[in-house]
Specification:
single chain, alpha/beta, Rossmann fold, seven-stranded mixed beta sheet, 4 helices, 7 strands, 32% strand, globular
Amino acid sequence: MTTVTTTHVKDLRELESFAKEFASKYLLNPRTLVFYGEVGAGKTTFIKLLCTELGVTEATSSPSFSIINEYLSKRGKVFHIDLYRLNTEEDVWNLGLEELFFDNSYCLIEWPELVEAYLPDDTLEIYIEVNEKKERFFKIIVKKLA
C-alpha cells in the first residue's frame, strides 16, 4: 500500500514548523529518505532542519563536494548524501553506499536517481517543487510493506 501526502510551505518559518511535524511523523526509526527537486528547491535546507530535529548538534553543511557528510545525533548516525556530481552507478558504489542503507542509520539522499534500483523497499520519497513566489510544495510518498 502506498500513501501520498502533500504539504504547502509558504516561507522559512513554516518550513521549520513542517520539519518538526515531518520528523515526529516519519523519523521515528532510522530509515532511508530520498529527496527530489530542482537545484534551489530547498532539499539541503530541509535536510539541515531534519538533522536538527534528530538531535544533531554540530553544524551541518551541504555535501555537494564531499558527497557524504556523517553526523552523530541523539538517535544514532545520520548520513547526508548528495549524488549530484556523480555520473555512473559505478561512481556511487565505489563510495560503499549500499552498506549505509542497511546499517540502521538515517540516510538522507539528494539526487538519488543513480541508486533508485538499490534502495530499501521502505524508502521514503520526498518531492519538492517551488513556485514563482518561492513557496514550496512537498509530496511525500510512503510505501507500506505487506
